[in-house]
Amino acid sequence: MKYTTETLDNRRFDFTVQPDPEVKILTIRDNLILSRSNFCLLTGAPKVGKSTFTSAIISSAIARHSIFDIELHRTEDKKRVAWFDTEQANYDLYKSVHRVLDLAAVSSYPDTLDIFTMRKDEAPNIIQLIEFYLKTTPEAGVVVIDGLLDLVYNFNDERECKILIDWLKRVTAEYNIGIIAVLHTGKTTGTSVGHIGSFADRYCQSNLEISKDPSSIGTITLKPKLLRSSGDFEPISLMRDGYGKLFQVTYFEQTEIPKSKKR
To answer: How many CA atoms lie within 13 A of 263 on its CB side?
Structure first.
C-alpha cells in the first residue's frame, strides 16, 4: 500500500464531531455486551454448553424479547441474523436449529435467519464466504461464527491469528455489524487457546465464559469474563427438566444452603 498525506488525513480523528449513538446488539439484563462495529466471544472448554447458549441468543432475535435474560436486538435496517456453523454435522445442526425454534416458541423457520454449514470448508474459504455474504446482504445486522478456530490453520501462528482478528475488526466496522464468535478454551488452563485467544481477548468488546457447574449435575453457567462496555452481571445458569426442556436456575437456588433436619 502506498501511503500519502491523504491516507493519513483519512485516519485523523475529529474529536469535535460526536459519533453516531451506539447501537446495541446483545444485552444481558440490560448490560451492553455487543454493539455495532464490534465483536464478542463465547468461550469455554469443548462440550460445556456453548451451542446451547448460542441457540438461546439466536432465539431471542426471533422471539423479539429476552430469553433467559439474554436479548439479541434487531433493527429494521439490519434485521437479518446469520449463523455460520463450522463444527456440527448436519443432524446435530438440525437439532440445534430446532432448539432455537423451541426456545423462541415458533413453529416455522423465520425468513430473517440465514444458517450456513461450513464444516467441509477450509479456513480461507470460510472467511471469503462470510465476507461475500456481508457484501451481498446489507440488511445483515449480526453474524454468529461457531467456531472461530476453524478460520485459521494454526491457532499458535501469531501472524495468521493477527490477520484474522484484523479481519474481524475491519468487517464489523465496514459493514456496520456485530459478530458473536464461539472460541474454545484449554481444558486445563481455562484460557482462550493460543495466539488467536490472546488477540481475541485483547480486541473483543466482551468475553462471556461458559462452564459446567461441578456442584450441580447438568447445570451450565454463563458468566462475564472480560467486559469493555458494561459492569459485571450475575451469572446465568440453565438446566434441563425430565422432558429435556431448558429452564433457568436462579442464583439463589444454586447457592442456597440446605436447612439441617431437626433432630
So the answer is: 0
CA distances 125 to 129, 132, 152, Å, are 6, 10, 11
Looking at beta carbons, which pairs linking 236-241 to residues 24 or more positions away fall under 8 Å? Answer: 236/28, 236/68, 236/69, 236/70, 237/213, 238/49, 238/52, 238/53, 238/56, 238/68
Q: How distant is the alpha carbon of residue 164 from its chain centre?
A: 16
pLDDT, position 88: 94
Which is more confidently placed, 34 or 6? 34
pLDDT tens column, 96-150:
999 999 999 998 889 999 999 999 999 999 999 999 999 999 999 999 999 999 9
Q: Which three cell numbers stand for residue 38?
A: 464490534
| Pairwise CA distance, residues 133 & 141, whole Å | 12
Residue pLDDT, tens place only, 16-43: 988 878 899 999 999 999 999 999 999 9
What is the percent of the chain where pLDDT is above 90? 75
What ranges do the domains of the chain cover?
A: 20-255
How far apart CA 102 and CA 96 sit, in angstroms, is 10
CB atoms within 10 A of CB 49: 21
- Cell (9 digits) for 41: 466471544
Confidence tier at 259 by pLDDT (50, 70, 90): very low
Task: Give the alpha-carbon dihedral of 187, 193, 194, 200, to 10 degrees.
Answer: -160
Kindly give the interhelix angle for 123-136 and 158-174, rounded to the nearest 10 degrees.
10
Amino acid letter for position 140: A
Q: Which fold has domain 20-255?
A: Rossmann fold (3.40.50)
- Per-residue H/E/C for 70-96: EEECCECCECEEEEEECCCCHHHHHHH
Q: Which residues contact 32 (CB under 8 A, 6 or more apart)?
A: 22, 24, 229, 230
